[in-house]
């Protein structure tokens, strides 16, 4: 990777995507192996979560171990009105692993969230780190919104799934953006009918073993909307390098496929770097 100068200042943007976003770990593995070190990271949802651990000093191997070794029961607790999941276990898990404040990180991190009351995109880059990560990961209807600074915050992917515009201005010479939106040509597949009890089917869905047809249609509709918005935003502010692993077989809830997802992220990163032209610095 001699085409990339040693002193090139890299800004990394990690998009959201649930389990699909875990491909970011494979991408970071390839970037680190190529000697591309970040000066700043911006992320939303899963991308912000992984970016927070990376900025906290976790190595790629530690990120892999954390992702594949964490059991869903460690981070999931059930709620009532406002969301299926309350988020208290997730908060404790974050508190156990991350620094308390953005200012304690190794390099600047920006997390994005959406104000569910006003629809505004909210940029979080200072103060309490745990509440910011909770907010950016609060998928509407799944997690209860996070209260912070008088706002009710949910997943930043509602407004921008790949927040290139949120990188600190003038910091990076070269921007690498990672897009984990699923391909739109994936058909909606009806669930197979079974003779099992309704509760058994519900439990399978809750533990990510099954996706109901109604949920599949709803999530596909969200994918269509987010992909259209993302394409326009990337056209308005294109990164220097875009890495977008297709992963047609991986849904946002497929946390059972993490090893394969990480490897597909790495494969996409290798292809993108091999095809990338010699960088032309955008900062003097």
Task: Write structural notes for this entry.
The chain is α/β, with parallel strands linked by helices. It contains 8 helices and 10 strands. The strands form 2 sheets. Strands 1, 2, 4, 5, 7, 8, 9 and 10 form an 8-stranded mixed beta sheet that branches. A two-stranded parallel ribbon has the order 3-6. It is globular and about 55 Å long.
Main beta sheet strand tally, sense and closure? 8 strands, mixed
The gyration radius over C-alpha positions equals 18 Å
Secondary-structure content class: alpha/beta
Which consecutive residue ranges, at least 5 long each, have pLDDT under 50? 205-209
The helix count comes to 8
State the helicity in percent bands: 25-40%
Rounded mean pLDDT score: 87
Choose one word for the global shape. Answer: globular
SSE order in H/E notation? Answer: EHEHHEHEEHEEEEHHEH
Q: Give the termini separation.
A: 22 Å
What's the total number of strands? 10
Q: What percent strand?
A: 15-25%
Describe the structure using short key phrases.
10 strands; 8-stranded mixed beta sheet; alpha/beta; two-stranded parallel sheet; 284 residues; single chain; 16% strand
Brief overview, please?
With 284 residues, the chain is of the alpha/beta class. It has helices at residues 23-33, 46-55, 60-69, 88-97, 129-136, 198-206, 213-236, 258-275, and strands at residues 10-14, 38-44, 83-85, 109-115, 121-124, 141-143, 146-148, 151-155, 174-178, 241-243.
Topology:
Layout: E1 10-14, H1 23-33, E2 38-44, H2 46-55, H3 60-69, E3 83-85, H4 88-97, E4 109-115, E5 121-124, H5 129-136, E6 141-143, E7 146-148, E8 151-155, E9 174-178, H6 198-206, H7 213-236, E10 241-243, H8 258-275
Parallel strand pairs: 1-2, 1-9, 2-4, 3-6, 9-10
Antiparallel strand pairs: 4-5, 4-8, 7-8
């Amino acid at each position: 990777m001699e085409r990339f100068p040693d002193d090139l200042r890299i800004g990394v943007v990690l998009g959201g995507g649930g389990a699909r976003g875990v491909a970011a770990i494979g991408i970071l593995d390839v970037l680190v192996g190529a000697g591309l070190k970040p000066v700043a990271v911006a992320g939303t949802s899963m991308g912000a979560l992984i970016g927070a651990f990376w900025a906290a000093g976790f190595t790629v191997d530690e990120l892999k171990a954390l992702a594949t070794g964490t059991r869903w029961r460690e981070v999931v607790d059930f709620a009532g009105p406002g969301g299926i999941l309350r988020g208290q276990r997730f908060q404790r898990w974050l508190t156990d692993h991350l620094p308390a404040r953005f200012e304690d990180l190794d390099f600047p991190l920006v997390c994005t969230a959406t104000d569910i009351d006003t629809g505004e995109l909210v940029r979080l880059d200072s103060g309490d780190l745990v509440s910011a990560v909770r907010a950016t990961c609060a998928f509407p209807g799944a997690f209860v919104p996070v209260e912070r600074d008088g706002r009710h915050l949910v997943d930043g992917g509602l407004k921008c799934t790949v927040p290139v515009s949120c990188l600190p201005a003038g910091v990076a010479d070269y921007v690498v953006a990672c897009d984990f939106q699923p391909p739109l040509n994936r058909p909606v597949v009806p669930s197979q009918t079974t003779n099992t009890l309704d509760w058994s089917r519900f439990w399978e869905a809750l533990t990510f073993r099954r996706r109901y047809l109604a949920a599949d249609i709803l999530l596909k509709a969200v994918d269509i909307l987010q992909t259209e918005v993302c394409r326009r935003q990337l056209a308005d502010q294109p990164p220097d390098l875009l890495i977008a692993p297709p992963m047609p077989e991986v849904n946002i809830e497929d946390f059972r496929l993490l090893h394969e997802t990480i490897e597909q992220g790495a494969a996409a990163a290798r292809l993108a770097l091999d095809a990338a032209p010699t960088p032309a610095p955008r900062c003097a």
